[in-house]
Specification:
By secondary structure, this protein is an all-alpha fold. The chain has one domain. The protein is built from two helices and no strands. It is found in: Cell membrane.
Length: 90
C-alpha cells in the first residue's frame, strides 16, 4: 500500500510535468494573442476571427514542433515512476 508521502510526491511530480509540457503551447498562444491584440489596436481592425485563427495556427505549429519533447517527457515519467509503482517496485 502506498504511503501518503509517496502519493503526494508522485502527484507533485505529475503536476510539475504537466506544467512543463504545457508551457510551450500556452506561451505561444500568449505571445500570438499579444501580437494580434497590438496589431488590432494599431490598425483599429476589430475582427473576431483575426484573434482566433493566428493563435490556432501558432498552437498547432508549436505542438507539432514540441511533440517529441512532450512525448519523451511523459513516457519517461510513466516508465520511471508510474510503472514501478504499479509493479510494486517502490
Amino acid at each position: 500500500m502506498l504511503g501518503e508521502g509517496l502519493f503526494h510526491d508522485v502527484l507533485r511530480q505529475a503536476l510539475w510535468i504537466a506544467v512543463i509540457v504545457s508551457v510551450p503551447i500556452l506561451a505561444s498562444a500568449l505571445i500570438m494573442g499579444l501580437a494580434v491584440g497590438l496589431l488590432q489596436a494599431l490598425t483599429s481592425i476589430q475582427e473576431m476571427t483575426l484573434t482566433f485563427v493566428p493563435k490556432l495556427v501558432a498552437i498547432v505549429v508549436v505542438f507539432w514542433i514540441s511533440m517529441g519533447f512532450m512525448t519523451q517527457t511523459l513516457a519517461t515519467f510513466f516508465t520511471t515512476t508510474i510503472v514501478p509503482l504499479i509493479a510494486g517496485g517502490r
